[in-house]
């Protein structure tokens, strides 16, 4: 026999190699039905044979056999632009399925997600779950790193699961990874290490590149920093000019810059003060913003300061001479260099705030970050309001924009908006209703009577919980000791032991009598825990500051107290309508759980009296602008007040002058 001809079928790479070696050693030529002669004499031949085994598309005869293998496709793309697009991955996988005889029964896709954190990939998790159920036998991928970029040891956790389910990974680039044999596993580990190294390499490259850029005086990210000017140097290192942080100036390529404290001393002082006021006096960002605005300080773009802008300033390490990059930090790809949070490079320039103060401020902000942040448009009664006509929930809504928080928020029955319905769709001003609800809670729930009830209830509960007084517990323990002591007495081996134990027992018995006597008097009652008393006393303070509470807290409190608030519309004969309704507490909250109210209760308080008396004092007709400026109130509030004052006959509207209406006191006419 000179040669062995074999019919090519899919077989395990290592199994086949074993056979080949055997035949080769026997001096036989090996000829495949498709591949022809396989030359195992030199390395090149072996490599060609091996790679043809693992990479060559399985051919006709094989396809017929494997055509029914159910498989799924998994596509992942992180935010890296260099990776193959999902569409390309998909088309490659479809090709792979055609060649390999797989039937794709489902697709799983994770977009914009890094491969180093598999827990954060929802589709990936679903894939693993479905794999365990055994509905498919292969996962088709573009390349192995799509499945995971994790460390091989982390990736092995997934592989074990796949092996148990009899599922293999097949990549368009890199071939098949089977986990049920040693060869497959070794291949998988080696290529997994490659996929992982690549992610580490990418991150290391990015970080060292950044550091170099910063050292060279380039600022690759971010905007100008408030109160830090830029000294610009040209290619020869010559100082060309200093650009204020207020100026927009695009630095020519090749120039470098250095941050220096601004020439605008006022801004620098303001920042220094802000850090100190936060660190020492605990001022909040909004308080500082208010102070800045009062001083007339403008932001770099010339606007007013908002709390958010101040918070941004006070957390910016640029003021201590460090540079932070990747503010919007995306965990995963760079996990090796920055476990959490942005990258920070120290001493990139000279700062003007000392490190200790800065650290204190950061600690304060970290602590505050945990508290509930108030929302601008928090409809705190949501879920509680019911339309009295159609029994549906009423929704809070308003217009967006700067005027929205003044007066345009309301709760309405807005169901079937575009359909005819019998419901007259009541609506109610949100602010007025919210104030009313809060005042009712102040009067009925946080009242002195309730506080007293709560205090006695708490005392009783505290005593019940500790019904076993300390003395009773001591007695119980003592009796247990005596019992054991008596046993020891019986077991005592020497006279000395006997004497010692009986002496101890006598002392314990004495104590027992004493305790019993004290218990008989029955005087020991435990006081309520101090925190509870304090909390109840705190109710008085809470009552005063209820309307300043964070919306989130209020919503939680309402859910505890209020069962529902019903709103009805009556006198439905014109556009002018009146409201009535009732607020219902949970029965255990207060003795009279139903609180009826009318229009007058929930109308927002307006400043019509103030506006009317201003107009009357002016002694002449005024415009709305005059009122706004004199009283310092917003347009909406002025309009509202004028409408009410007109309706009450205190103010009359005159003709338009310069396109503005003028208003005068009724007495002036
Ligand atoms: Zn309705």
Describe the structure.
The structure is a single chain. This protein is 46% helix and 17% strand. It folds into six domains: 3-55, no CATH class; 60-206, Resolvase, N-terminal catalytic domain (Rossmann fold, 3-Layer(aba) Sandwich); 259-369, Alpha-Beta Complex (Hect, E3 ligase catalytic domain fold); 385-446 and 536-602, no CATH class; 467-525; 608-668, Winged helix-like DNA-binding domain superfamily/Winged helix DNA-binding domain (Arc Repressor Mutant, subunit A, Orthogonal Bundle). The protein contains 23 helices and 23 strands. The longest helix is centred in the N-terminal third of the chain and has 34 residues, at 182-215. The chain is an alpha+beta fold. Helix 4 links the parallel strand 4 (69-77) and strand 5. Helix 5 packs parallel to helix 7 (152-165), helix 7 packs antiparallel against helix 8 and helix 16 packs antiparallel against helix 17 (495-521). Residues 54-66, 328-340, 372-376 and 400-406 have low confidence and may be disordered. Residues 387, 389-390, 392, 413, 423, 425 line the site of zinc ion.
Give a concise summary.
With 669 residues, this protein is an alpha+beta fold. The protein has 23 helices and 23 strands.
